[in-house]
Fold each of these.
Amino acid sequence: MRKLLFPIIIILATIAIVAKLFYLQIIDDSYLKKSDNNALKIVYEYPERGYIYDRTGKLLVANQPSYDIMVIPREIKNLDTLALCKILDITREDFDKKIEKAKVYSPRLPSVFLSQLTKREFAAFQEKIRHYKGFYIQKRNLRDYQVDFAGNVFGYIRQVNENDVKRNPYYISGDLIGIQGVEQAYEEVLRGQKGVKYIQKDKHNREIGPFKEGIYDSISEKGKDITITIDGALQEYGEKLMVNKRGGIVAIEPKTGEILALIASPNYDPKLLVGRQRSKNYQQLAELPGDPFFDRVLIGEYSPGSPFKILTGLIGLQEEVIDTHTSFPCSHGFYYARGAFMKCHDAGSWNLHPAIAKSCNTYFAQTYKRIIDKYKNPKLGMDAWYNHLRSFGLGQFLGYDLPIGRKGQIPNSEYYDRWYPKGGWKGTTTISNAIGQGEITVTPIQLANVMCAVANQGYYYTPHIIKSIQDDKIDKNFVEKKTTTIDKQHFFPVIEGLAEVYKSGTASRLQIPDINICGKTGTVENFIKVDGQKKQLKDHSVFLAFAPKEDPKIVIAVFIENGGFGATIAGPLASLMIEKYLKGIITRTDLEKRLLDSTLESEYILKDQVEAEKRAKAKLEAELKAKQKRING
Amino acid sequence: MVKTKHLANQSVISNVDWLTIFIYALLVFLGWLNIYSASLPDEATSIFDLGQIYGKQILFIGLSIPLIIVLLSIDAKFYEKYAVVFYCIGILSLLGLFVFGKSIKGQTNWYQFAGFGLQPSEFVKTATALLLAKYIAEAQPTFETLKEQAIGMGIFMFPVLLILMQPDMGSAMIFMTLFLVLYREGFPGWYLWTGFVAIILFFLALLFEPLFILIGIAIAVIIHFITNKKINRNPFIYLIVTVVMIGFVYSVDYVYDSVLEPHQKDRINVLIGEDVDMKKEGYNLNQSKIAIGSGNWTGKGFLEGTQTKGGFVPEQHTDYIFTTVGEEWGFAGCMVVIGLFVTLFFRILYLAEQQKTAFPRIYGYCVAAFLFMHFFVNVSMLIGLFPTIGVPLPFFSYGGSSLIAFTIMLFIFLKLDSNKVNEW
């Protein structure tokens, strides 16, 4: 027995050692990471971000150098804090806060201490940096905007936050990332690849040469320049026209789906979102009435109003419930149920062509009723109608290359079954859909896309903002034709009707000499709740057009919040935009002047008041809640 | 006369245990490779450069070869015959330290001459082992009387006392392994049990509230009392044991606060995971774990260890040499080294049990015990199984004293073993 004790102890000890080694070396991989942190210093080199050009080759966005002071907390030694604070013009409290924040992120990894120094601050600090161990300067690039428009198109760049870093391991604290607009959509193209150098350190943190002769190092790759489809001059002109009005303009080249202008109003000067002032300015902009960051053309969902009649007409023709000769009598309106009435401007008996020109509610309500009630079951009619609309890109994300969007809403039979669980709904129940009100909502860019399909007589290209990428191809989805469910021959009479709108119809005063425009006006009722009471506001104004009729080069959708009758503001705006794009000069300067001067601000006062009250109330509630939590906690 | 000596030498070559020599050579070689990696300066020089640590180690290895030849040539009886003399020289060398020794980091355990240091406690182990073996072999104690027990323990407790005065806890602790040898030779088992229980109670007392430990002790004692089927279930002894254990638990706090030096407290805190500063007292273990832990299955490769290159692990070429194995050769490399050591221990124990006389058997046991204790304390300390105690890894760590002392210790045993055919 006594012989066995020693061997047993050897075996037990060995098992313990092997198990612990197995745990340290194989199971727990945190030591591998610690080892890298310990012994490697990583130096980054940030390449220049790609430039952005407009479709005519004009430079819109370039870069300017910027300098960040970085800090590695555990490497701070013998620091003269007061002197440093003085050079950088920060207070002692600021200093402590920043160091504490950096320590929380990581004591051994670099954090941004002070970002985006001015050239003068940089020069002053650079002379003295060798006195401040643990601090160093990291050069980066900031945007240098050559223009003061298209803020919503560009988006902006900012430092990554914790979520960005978690989501994408490429980014490390202090990196810049594109947010919104093309900066976000083409972030990977524009940013390039940062270069990395691994340097072996010893325990005194001295650099003892490249790690493994630099086999893991990479050199930075410059960001690629991109050309966007925006026409800078048209975009700028549109933004000018939209001053003091809220809403948006989308212009698309129907033959390609290229977005010529994407104007959301109110907008902001992109220069405001650069550098150290960015977050302060952002805060201020975000609190402005109307919210400049709410991109109305991409995420504003509105009832389309009368322009939707184009689709009702097309579907009617395709479903063969009407033909070009079908006419419905109209006496200033349409009774679709007892006491329910849809008004109309003119009275008479119309077929499709003048019905479009005159925007006759009765005609399209009748057509819609026939479409829905064509089948034995209104469900089948509703779904046929729904599928036609889907083929125009409505009720779904369009798939364009900008990071934000909305589906809009196109109801189908399921939707109404939910509303009317016992059934019993039919064409007349949902008759508002006929004229683009009711349950239908679309975004302005979706509406413009519908007009592209009309201009092309049955197909469209997914709208996109990218025209070309340096040394690269654009997404091939953008050069694929998307066909609608409507046969080509049905577009012809509708287009004739749209042309008639300008000749004799609702927009007859907006003709441009030598150019045949096809268009459609629209007004959309809208309401606001004030103290629980529903109050009707001035109608939204909508206009949808393409030109020239014979060879469409531009499709334009204009949406003006509370702009009144479509032909008063939205229509003239569209017509000026078309003239600007096709001719380059404006001949109707008096019309232009009237529009530039016109303001709708008075229309927005009530809305802004309600909004402000709502926001204040929400803020108060949040504060109360926080207070409650503090008390409870 | 000449002829017989020639014959004797021949019998050494044919009778010596070549497996042990092979393992020894391999450990020394692997040790040197890792010392080379751990001490390589930016500009590599000749491996024989005496200005470099790896160059010096080559010199020590070179010195070991003639030493081995001499050790194997000397008559086997010589070691037993002069064991007392060796022991006395060893004790004198320890005493001499108090006069001529060199102080390094508060410990006086070195002689310094001609640029080389000599650590007598390394050699005293061999001398102690020889004397202990001689005493047991000749006096044939049963260890039933207190006198025999006192002599057996005294042989190694005397140098331990001198070593503790240097003060060198680590080396002193290594000697405790000789209790295993005494046990093998008939020493009462309760000494081992007492030591074992004391160590366990010590750490439990530091980690938990005394009350919980008291409950634990009470339950353990009652279970033992109930399951003990022997007739002499004297409740009085149980009571005394319980009271002593409880007293011990309560004295731990006192020992910890008043007796232990601050650095010893720190080392214990580090081990039991108390709140420690990774830049100060926790630095060594943390860096050691990082180096070993970053090795993964196969390591970063020879001379490729970032921690080794950066010099993050302190004393890496001496007591922490195994961290280089862990980092550069990974789990696989560690298994090879551990495998070699364990094979060596079992080989020595096997050879010891094969001896026909007591002296070489007991001496062999001592050799295995010393080597095992060094190996276990060293490696356990690096991976956080044992408090930080500076003892070298035999044959592996840099250092002339330890390499030569262990070589002498091992090869005396190999000589004794090779001689067993003559021991009729």
Note: Chain A touches chain B at residues 2-3, 5-7, 9-10, 13-14, 16-18, 20-22, 24-26, 28-32, 34-36, 38-40, 200-203, 208-209, 211-212 (CB under 8 Å).
Amino acid sequence: MSIDRRHFLLGSTAAGVAGIASGKIHDGELGGPVQVIHGAVPWQEGTADSPPGVSGSGYSYFTNIEAAFVEAALARLIPGDPVGPGAVEANVPFFIDRQLAGPYGRGDHLYKGGPWPKGTPEQGYQSRFTPAELYRAGIAAVDQYVVVTFQGHTFAQLAAPEQDAVLKGLEAGNIALDRGVDAKTFFSMLLQNTKEGYFSDPIYGGNKDMAAWKMIGFPGAHYDYTEWVSRHGERVPYPPVSFMGRPGWRNAS
Amino acid sequence: MTTKLKPVDVVLVGFGWTGAIMGQQFCDEGLEVVALERGPWRDTATDFATGFAQDELRYMWRHHLFQNLADSTLTIRNNVNQEALPMRRLGSFLLGTGVGSGGVHWNAQIWRFLPTDFLTRSHNEQRYGKKSVTDYDLTVQDWGITYEELEPFYDQFDKVCGTSGKAGNLRGQIHPGGNPFEGARSSEYPTPPMAQTYGPTLFGAAARELGHHPFPHPTGNLSQPYTNTHGAQLGACTYCGFCEKFACGNYSKASPQTTILPYLLQKGNFTLRTESEVLRVELTPDRKRATGVTYVNSAGEEFFQPAQIVILSAYVLHNVRLLLLSGIGKPYDPKTGEGVVGKNYAYQTMSSVNVFFDDKILNPFIGSGALATVIDDFNGDNFDHGGLGFIGGAYIAGMVTGGRPIEMIYTPQGTPAWGLEWKHAAAKNYLRSFSLSVHGSNMSCRGNYLDLDPTYRDVHGLPMLRMTFDFNGNDHKMSDYLTDRAAEVARAMNPREIKLNRRVGSWSVTPYQTTHNTGGAIMGDNPQTSVVNKYLQSWDVHNVFSMGAGAFPQNAGYNPTATLAALAYHSAAEIKTRYLKSPGPLV
């Protein structure tokens, strides 16, 4: 870790906290400001640890070819039908794009030091790739496999049953990929990120209109169920709520 | 260059539950105490507010409150014939960091170990013969302390947390509605049990029908407001379902922040320094006494903090690594069985059974960290193990910690993990499914241990800890037997179908299991077989005390926090009454 990531001030006062809270890093990593706390529970304005939501539209990490792959794959991982939205309608490709463009994509929480032997399945993720790098290499490697196997087509150009067959092959590790990509590792990250985008709070760009929560009956960021604890077998009637509230709140005016 | 700081009476290395407990105990005694925490300051109003606390993606899957492995991790392998590789991503267990640490993102499941759990070797050997404690290369030991000695300190912790529950054994009298198998309690729980939702209620009825003894899970998520022994006030839990892996924004979950820090931080003789990581304990030339600790802060500046007493109050894995890096105690060698530091690393043997209904709405999102009805009929030695071929057991809990949909959608046996069939199964079953948790013991054995890795190093250039661990035959037999018992209760709930999630194969770092790592700095009555004595005092360096679940010689079928908190209070009491007057070995 380089020293320039660190924000630092050391000092002491008779009561409270010394240190600077601006640029506060506290995402589990080392390297935030040193604080010396003495005489009182510290409190400082402007330091609330509110979540890093996303805004805007369009892709900032995926290339056009990558976007076509991701949209095609997600349409098969969670297809849309009258029961509930598909991953694409729920805006999950956009969610994944923004995740990969941010700290998660950079492997912010991964140990990245070598050496890098493959290891046993029990030893878990041992790739040198960050998540963003794994998508880049993984998509290219799957398309390369598909072009060879299906006469010049990319994954996005295949019919749905063929796409399903490729995805099942990746899931089972039956397809060998080039470019140093382990098929099972790539597939499991893609599926995990898809479910994350489908079911996480809409502030992160997916779960559009909270439709995935509505489908299963999850009320979202609802905070107090006390009155429902003992009402056994009754359906809780609240529509889902996000950190941004819910549409009904805005329409009420 | 190392800057030498003003000497203090006590330095605390790490500031979670045991650091807060020891800080409060020593500051009340008038000692000058400095706590060094390698992570950041965190508090409810700023960091855990209810307006953004219920965020599954950020906390569970992006590990916002946990140790960032980019800086430092440990290496892992299943046995000595494998090459240990770094745990590159959190999975099986979620290491804490920052003020409060695991005490912030725990479930607050508050259990006492059984009286016989403290006598794992002698009790089982006497009842089932020597083979029962030596098969599968088991290296289980007695703790060197009894339940009766610890009871007042369990009681002390309950009164700090305001634990909600119903006593089953009050001063030897068995009371209906509580756990009839528990050791005798000196007082009732400070607050009554939480109300139970539909799933746990159905579980309790089915268990009772089978002749078992269901009771509400004891919990530090409070059923009603409570003011504790330090004047800290907790509020009633709102059952929001974001407890484990999350911080509570409602002051309803017992944590260092909600129970001890408001009192401790006001004391003039207490100082906390965050972003300060201890590299080693410094010893006198004869290595009989510690002079203090060397630490580095986030600016890369190095300090020596002299202290009369060094309390290792970091997480198990960090305490053991610090002992090894500081050369305190003889490292364990699995080939010879000699040495003690790193010996008897253990974990928890988890399995579960999912239950699916057609006709019942269970509302799984109404939950809390310990919202459960439990049976303890098959834990520890609460049942006859004759002919079963294993020791230990588990509690079986019909539990709803929440219905967080990325992690906790249960689908029936044979459902694919994606596609239309998965989506339909998720939509159909989410409100109508339930999980029974089988929380099993983990018996120490010769090949499971901790030492320093020969290859991988952390940001400071120091060797990482290396974990060598796999479930042994005793663990698998116990878990299979207990999972079958859970399945019987599940079937008695009359569901459409059930799904058994047995503990199969080798330990894997990937799926989350539990953050109950134990051992490696074990306690006992003999310096040849343990690292610390019953007061958690190093046998080798008398002014070093190693707190936490590292002291457990093996892990019982319960959550560890109340026991490690009781051990801390027990240690503090002895330091205050005897050690301060006459520093030296307490045994």
Note: Chain B touches chain A through 104 residues (CB under 8 Å).
Amino acid sequence: MAASDYSHLVGRRLPGGTYTLPDYVNWLWEDAILSAHDGDPTHPSLGYHIAIAGLGVSIGEVMALLDGSPDSGVMFGENELEFRGSLRTGATYECEGEITGVERKQGKRAGVFDKLTFRIEVRERGSLTPTVVCTNTWIFPRKADSGD
Amino acid sequence: MTELAVGTRIEPYVVSAVDAEKMKLMAALLQDPNPIHYDVEVVRALHYGDRPINQGPINMAWFMTCAVRFAGGRERLLRTQMRFLGNVFAGERFVAEGTVTAVDAAAGTAELEIACSADGRPVLAGTATIAIG
């Protein structure tokens, strides 16, 4: 299997930033995932949202790092979330991210694709310990005849 | 929580019909520009099918809800790891279910294996670690 054209991205740090979780976002998130409106602690899936929202780049900008675009069929591959505390509305979280892997693969059904893995640490402001560590793998389909 | 032992079954979490309107809400919350979640023409052009495709984070949330209900509280979920195996389309029946695969009384944790399906097709699989006791 050929090395990915994007393997130079491994080790690149993403800008990072902060995100404060508003009550209304928590409510709407619970609505979207069909969860009870239970307030705090929030549904753990918000760990993903907070990590991405505080990363300092948008989903589209992460896709663009591998020349993916919103309509190019980029899909979720894997996710890992490690919780060392609960997430709360009104709290401000500091996020730091890094690209930890880029691999080129080929599957019978999927054809040629690139796998991007990036890890984000989410700390409540003032804390040294991450509340959540979020690791994502996204799949970037490549056209077989493009030589990508 | 049910008394825990390896092999204990986790009560299934069922969504009887995946709602395309919730995908639009999630796209706005995530600022997710991927049109496969709201534009059927793009889904068709990519040869993925003919209905909007649910966001990975919604499927992830349902996987977690299955574990959280079994654990007895959101704060009891310590870790999840999952692989996305296929797309979940609007209108499909989503089921998350699993079993206890390990219990560590000393550490106060249990390991769950959870598999999710959409209209009977495997779409998501993984593990969860929960606090017990």
Note: The longest helix of chain A spans residues 23-32.
Amino acid sequence: MARTSTLSFDRGSLLLHPPPRGKAWIDYATWDDRVEKFRIPAISYRPLVESLQHESTRFTDEARAFQVLSLESHFEMTPYPHQREALAAWEEAGGSGVVVLPTASGKTYLAQMAIQATGRSTLVVAPTLDLLHQWYAHLKAAFPDVPIGLLGGGSRDESPILVATYDSAAIHAETLGNRYALVVFDECHHLPGDFYRKIAEYTIAPYRLGLTATPERSDNRHCDLDHLIGPVVYRRSPAQLAGGALAPHRTVQIKVHLSAGERHDYDTHIATRNEFLKQSNLSLGGAEGWQRFVQASARSSAGRRAMNAHRQAKAIALGTESKLRVLAELLARHYPEQTLIFTHDNATVHRISERFLIPAITHQTGVKERHAILQAFRAGEYRTIVASQVLNEGVDVPEASVAIILSGTASEREYIQRLGRILRRGRDPNKNAILYEVFTQDTSEERTSARRHPHTRPHHV
Amino acid sequence: MLPGDLLIHSYRGETIVPRRVPLDSHHRQLAGGLIETFRLAHGSTQAQLDSTLGELEGDSPDYRLRRGLVHLLKSFCTFEVISPLEPVKLRSRLFALAATGTPGSLHTEHCLKQLSGILSEELERAVFPDQIRGALYADLSQNQVLTQFEEPTPDALLHRYNLSQVQGVFYRATHVQLNVHRNDPGEYKYLFRFLKLFGLMTYIEGEPEHGFTLTIDGPTSLFQAHTHYGLALAKLLPALLHVNRWDLTASLKTRDPYSKAVRTSTFNLAAGCGLVSHYPPGKPFDSMLEQSFFEQWQTLKTDWRLEREVHLLPLPGSVMIPDFRLVHPDGREYILEIVGYWRPSYLQKKFSQVRRVDCPRLLLALSERLNLEKAGVKLDNLPATIIWFKDKLSAKAVLQALD
């Protein structure tokens, strides 16, 4: 009698050898001459195994290295209706699919329920170090008896529940692929990128959960999520949830003026740039105009000078002293309320940190220090945090009631997510969040701010 | 290697041509100048170094070349945190202190003074407010101090730059077709060692008279042509440069940055391309044993030629590269494999290779010192003629086995 066929995992793919009886498996397999065996994409693990079982074909499964966990949650709350419905819809779809919910609607808790329902080794992938730590802290609180590990941000653990950054998970996709039965993709609109998609392609995980507030991508590749994770199984918009998980808020826009010296420097730089544009017959209108400027600037000294002038003008418009003066005033007005400050660039973050002695979080901040800062902020030891883009996506800072944005960039997603962070319902049900947007007069930034608010015109303060 | 934004190439028809700088006086001067800037920057922060480099760059349109050279030079540098107190601790203490009052410049000065008093007492030496201010972010990469610079020569830097530009082309490679012919077995072994190290796979076709064609990609390339192994292929290139005779065609998949359309193209490279490897070279012979046998054979009078142009014998998932090939003018041919090692795992692997391989007649020279029983190796069913030897494999003994 022929030997029993063995299914094994090989660097992001499966080998099935010797070929088993039955026919259905052949649909998934490709003959690999290099190893003289049939090879199958790891992502086909679940349909392959189901088809083998359907035909009652005997085989030994050496591919799966995930385990059954006894998960007793130490952290339970009554789920919101949308969390309960989302879980039911996901389970109904066989445990693979995408859930679309607004930021701050409790996606982490939904994932916790999914992990518990699956009861097997789980990999959670998150785009930033902040989120990495947020998941880590949440899961540690939820499942204190199970080892929770980190991959990325300087850690390289191996544990039945692992939280990884997209970067690290992609780098180690070939070895992680058979260790987890459930993969949770946080902010899963990142997944279809060229480099990240192999996290989903190289894993055999039969259960997959995608979470996002904004699945759509400008390159249309969100359609690939159907194949990489599963279809959208549940979707709610901020309007549909309003009054539930989100707290009321108001937005205040503050326009500041450049000092005379700054104004002069700014005008000089802009004049230098415009002179070059005029001589070269270029205009900055539209995406194409900018491209042509970039190309022209690489070809001559005058072009380089114009590009450098453009950069310096932008820098003046972004990080002016005037904004820091306004900031000082706002900090004094709201002390001791919990306050978050966002700025566009790291240099300004550190300038603010050094000037006001406020803890800073940038992408350069180590995971441990970041965690300690956020802990101290939650505990009320720190009143204020200043951060650059790193806090962009859904980082949970529940106690913040004031947010101050100094010169952001015009990106709708970023804006929604920044808003969501401060609007998160805190322990105080009467909390009224305030969002300040501080921007400079008469520069390209004003247009940026206007683009964010298609319905409201900025008003003067 | 260089990041994508510092790669420079042009197109000649459909062919991609990576930037290659000539080693002329202009470029040697440029490289030498940058090296000197790094040497003089000893003891300054990364930000100071970057600002000096930025000033040097000025309005020069060749800034991408300069930045590429600078990127490579940084891999020769060690930057360290220089601070009297661990910055993370310093920050947490200062910020905790500051959180007790309303933020503002007066409050800042007050807190710095207060902490400098506390620290002076703790450390039993004077710590000034300005020192604290300066050390607050000493651990940020831009504030770290250049303490070591393993200076390359201008030529070595330019060679590394040209190699990195070509390596950059491979980032977009889906697979490489490599033709090799008449190389030393040591060179093949060297190449396959790196192939394995970088997780690549090969499909081997051919025979020793006309050469071999190796298709190099990775496990999941089977299902779809993609660029996941491009980085590994780029890293393989410096190893390939230590092989004598080869040419390759890399199949590329590029995405147009503006239209987002995917297009495929090819890139060709061959031995003698002028690129210089920085990987340490391999050895022509695996051991003294092989070398002395080779030298002995040259003194024999026989029609049998001892060839180092060998077979690459494909094994499922691997390859066997025998040490020698023996060819007779009448067309007879033998493969000679010398086994002088002791490690049990090595022996097991070697013998399982020999059993599985489908090859011409095989001569296996075994050292009498091998403890085959202990290694769990049985000599039954070996498709080979066995020659035992003591310390040194005699050429005559091998000749006897042939006739």
Note: The first strand of chain B starts at residue 9 and ends at 12.
